[in-house]
Specification:
The chain is about 10% helix and about 45% strand.
Length: about 200
């Protein structure tokens, strides 16, 4: 994720003013699979299918940007930034749909899924923060598109300060699509606010 507004905020800071930048729609998107459809279907238990494919965790890189810290100093000013999920979305790329999905949750995971640890959040020392959720009973039946609502958790403290990456785990209940293998585009729409002020 790159923001063209970073230089603008820094310029305002150098001018000696209070500054605030808001970007209500910072979007990232990627397919679940790298190439051919990879997630098992055939109506099996969705959570098991996601773990079996190894694509139940996604690594998102935000890049090394000065604004992506909860608080940082720029000269005499202090810059405070938050990044919230507006919504996340899964859009089916293959045949089948999400009509048999009962719930879907995005969590911030401590590590990527491996054969030895298919569910990183199950072994996390502290509970994995919930970033976005979908529940069929309240949100309605999903078809080709499944939309998750953001929970208001600030992503900035969850981004690794060394790698500038965020690992997201997908957990679910209900059944996978009916096709043998399927793929979907996963996207996340976020709300960035960055405020700078002098003491």
């Amino acid at each position: 994720m790159r923001s063209s507004k970073v230089p603008a905020l820094l310029a305002v800071l150098l001018a000696g003013c209070f500054a605030q930048i808001e970007d209500r729609s910072v979007a990232i998107s990627r397919p679940l699979c790298s190439g051919a459809p990879c997630v098992p279907g055939n109506g099996t238990t969705l959570n098991t299918a996601l773990q079996a494919s190894g694509y139940n965790t996604i690594k998102v890189s935000f890049g090394d940007q000065p604004l992506l810290k909860s608080s940082t100093s720029v000269g005499p000013a202090t810059v405070s930034t938050s990044l919230l999920v507006n919504q996340a979305q899964f859009t089916m790329k293959t045949a089948g749909d999400f009509s048999q999905v009962d719930s879907l949750t995005l969590l911030r995971a401590p590590a990527m899924s491996t054969a030895g640890t298919p569910d990183p959040c199950a072994v996390a020392t502290t509970p994995c923060p919930t970033l976005a959720t979908y529940t069929k009973a309240t949100d309605g039946t999903a078809t080709q598109t499944l939309v998750l609502k953001g929970t208001g958790v600030d992503l900035i403290p969850l981004i690794d300060p060394a790698t500038h990456e965020l690992i997201i785990e997908i957990t679910a209940s209900g059944n996978a699509p009916g096709t043998a293998l399927w793929d979907a585009d996963a996207s996340m729409d976020m709300y960035l606010t960055s405020r700078a002020k002098f003491p």
